[in-house]
Specification:
With about 575 residues, this protein is an all-alpha fold. The protein folds into two domains: about 300 residues, no CATH class; about 230 residues, no CATH class. The longest helix has about 50 residues.
Length: about 575
């Protein structure tokens, strides 16, 4: 995959101007944020890993469709699911690449004096974003498009039906991706044109979080319509009008020739909104590059805070309170850390929304292993995600403040980091699980599970603190230590295995008081053991603020080849 992407980029780049190629590469570095994703500034490696994860999801879906083919009556349901997944992936990519398409202060200060046209900068930024989005669209649908074409296209018109469904499917997916990303750019551009620079920066961060929640909520809370009667029911008319998913389902069936005549208005809505978004995107981008560049240079990005009443809740000693507040404000104010945090919490929120949708349509049920495993997964991603972003620095130039104020022993800083993990990782995940547990019966078993879950979170916290001898967000980071694809699938496998084993044991312990008490005691003993190890290590450890690269020898790959030695002349017998 890496070689294929590298060859494709080289072939396309050879036909483009040099200035455009250089800008595209630099903007792609900033879109992907290599330092946060740890891939040694190797763009094809990251794109290959990113595509590999999505291809695996597409392959799993294709295998399920081919080995367990659904009836043609469920075609709309499967099409809606694939379009919803496509919109979710593009939406999350849009959140990650939130403000990378519009010009910022660095672009203007560095590129404005150069002999470059603004349209060259704009096209380089657009193609950098389109590269990531295009790979996401292709990877997520590369195999599923073939499977759905064979299942839903062949029964109607044979091989011609397969080809028509295939092309209709790909056109719809590309149109849906362009619509959603264009809508995000239109909203951002409108806000940048109408608001002052400082207010836009604040509103942009809020819009980013709102868009993140909207994309996840729409995917997991939106109802599914499977039959013609449900599409034409008056009670569902408002849903069809408001949801882009159903617009593009109708567009797919219109291109495939399987859309009933009374639903053509829904496909027309997709065409109309696609055109509106295309015009809005073009207008907002052109106006932003023409009108907001001067405002971007003149208005500062950071201004002194307003005086007033600022109350911060106490969370332990003065040192613990300072580090907890520092962690909270770093996550809230740093775009890089918000995006990294959103990646982990997207899993937590997705699982929670799935359970909410299921609980709305079902009566209260006894606690099951599926709910126990889901709660373990949510707790794991909440804690490990927070630990992951703790390693990303906020401002290396400001670390001298922590160095000169280190007046406490290292174990006090470790204790403060532990408190931050408990407050921002364990507590939110437990609160979400507690809200979902209100639908479970009997209450006693739900309460027992809620009593055991914080112990699991505390164990994860102590595991995260092993040899973590630094203040969160204050240590330099060395990229190139993580293989994203291998770590992702390995983590999924290990988490699923451990969650299944632990969930099975806990489900049995909830009905046997002695086993439940033994489980609680074992978890408490594990917490005490890990806490003791971390405390003893912290007593002799020293805080560090610089990641040191390993001392290794690098060879140039040069080999000395000695010249062939001539053989001596033959000795005459005489």
């Amino acid at each position: 995959m890496r070689r294929l992407i590298q060859a494709l980029l080289d072939r396309i780049g050879a036909r483009l101007p040099l200035a455009f190629r250089v800008l595209h590469q630099q903007f792609l570095l900033r879109v992907i944020d290599l330092e946060a994703l740890s891939i040694e500034a190797d763009i094809p490696s990251f794109l290959g890993q990113f595509a590999g994860v999505l291809i695996m999801f597409s392959f799993i879906h294709t295998v399920g469709v081919l080995f367990f083919p659904p009836p043609p009556s469920l075609a709309w349901e499967y099409e809606q699911a694939r379009i919803s997944d496509m919109l979710l992936v593009i939406g999350l990519c849009s959140v990650i690449m939130w403000d990378t398409t519009f010009p910022d202060r660095r672009d203007i200060m560095v590129l404005a004096p150069l002999p470059l046209f603004p349209r060259t900068i704009l096209m380089a930024k657009l193609t950098a974003s389109a590269t990531v989005l295009g790979i996401a669209v292709i990877a997520l649908n590369c195999t599923s498009s073939l499977g759905l074409s064979v299942i839903f296209g062949a029964p109607a018109r044979g091989s011609l039906g397969v080809l028509r469904f295939f092309f209709a499917y790909w056109f719809t997916m590309l149109a849906a991706a362009a619509f959603l990303y264009g809508a995000v750019l239109t909203i951002q551009g409108s806000a940048a044109l109408t608001l002052p620079r400082r207010m836009f920066l604040r509103v942009s961060a809020i819009l980013q979080l709102v868009a993140f929640g909207l994309f996840l909520g729409t995917r997991f809370l939106q109802p599914t319509l499977t039959t013609h009667a449900e599409f034409t029911a008056p009670a569902n008319h408002w849903l069809l009008v408001a949801s882009p998913t159903f617009w593009f389902v109708a567009l797919l069936n219109q291109l495939n020739g399987s859309l009933p005549p009374d639903l053509h208005w829904l496909a027309h809505r997709a065409w109309i909104n696609l055109g509106i978004v295309a015009l809005g995107t073009a207008a907002s981008l052109l106006l932003c590059y023409k009108r907001t560049m001067k405002k971007t240079v003149e208005d500062p990005d950071l201004v002194p805070g307003t005086r007033g009443f600022h109350w911060v809740p106490r969370s332990g000693s003065s040192l613990q309170n300072a580090i907890v507040v520092f962690c909270l404000r770093s996550i809230a104010r740093s775009r890089q850390h918000r995006i990294a945090m959103a990646f982990y919490w997207s899993v937590v929120i997705a699982i929670a929304l799935s359970w909410i949708r299921w609980e709305i349509s079902n009566p209260p049920v006894p606690i099951a292993i599926g709910f126990i495993m889901s709660s373990f997964v949510m707790m794991t991603f909440a804690v490990l995600g927070l630990r992951g972003i703790f390693s990303l620095p906020v401002s290396l130039n400001a670390n001298w403040m922590w160095r000169v104020t280190q007046l406490r022993p290292t174990q006090d800083y470790v204790a403060a980091t532990r408190r931050a993990l408990l407050l921002f990782g364990v507590a939110p995940a437990w609160t979400i699980v507690a809200a979902l547990s209100l639908h479970l019966r009997p209450w006693q078993q739900a309460a027992e599970h809620l009593a055991f879950l914080p112990l699991v979170g505390a164990i994860l916290v102590e595991l995260c603190l092993i040899r973590f001898d630094k203040v969160p967000f204050t240590c330099s980071y060395l990229p190139g230590k993580t293989n994203f694809q291998a770590i992702f699938w390995g983590f999924v496998f290990i988490l699923a295995t451990l969650g299944l084993l632990l969930g099975t044991y806990e489900l049995d312990a909830l009905t046997h008081p002695l086993n439940y008490i033994l489980m609680i005691l074992c978890a408490a003993a594990a917490i005490l053991a890990f806490w003791t190890v971390n405390h003893l290590h912290a007593r002799s450890a020293t805080l560090y603020f610089e990641e040191q690269p390993p001392e290794i020898l690098t060879r140039l790959g040069l080999t000395f080849v000695s010249p062939p030695q001539s053989s001596p002349p033959p000795v005459s017998a005489e």
